[in-house]
Write a structure and sequence with these properties.
Blueprint (H helix, E strand, L loop, with lengths): L5 H19 L4 H8 L6 H19 L17 H14 L1
Helix pairs in contact: 1-3, 1-4, 3-4
């Protein structure tokens, strides 16, 4: 296995931003329904979506180099990601 390139790391961080957006889009299920006009998704399904995105962020934060211990992250700010993880856990817990 090879180390991730700077471009690959940037793409991973960008994907994390997508999960942050999903988690932060709606404070509750009713807001989700209003924003999306989705009448087919249940609250259980919505919470599962939030949980998947929250877990995705936790996995991304834990990425390491090939040595298995050194983080791939350098100067990236995880402020928004950490806040989204906290929000997501509050929603689905």
């Amino acid at each position: 296995m090879e180390e991730k390139t700077a471009d690959e790391i940037a793409a991973i961080f960008s994907a994390a931003g997508d999960s942050v957006t999903v988690i932060n889009a709606d404070a509750n299920f009713a807001a989700y329904g209003t924003r999306t006009s989705d009448s087919t998704t249940t609250e259980t399904e919505w919470k599962a979506m939030i949980q998947r995105n929250t877990e995705h962020l936790e996995i991304i934060k834990a990425y390491t180099k090939v040595d298995g211990t050194t983080s791939i992250w350098t100067s990236e700010s995880f402020t928004a990601i950490d806040a989204a993880i906290t929000t997501g856990k509050a929603i689905y817990s």
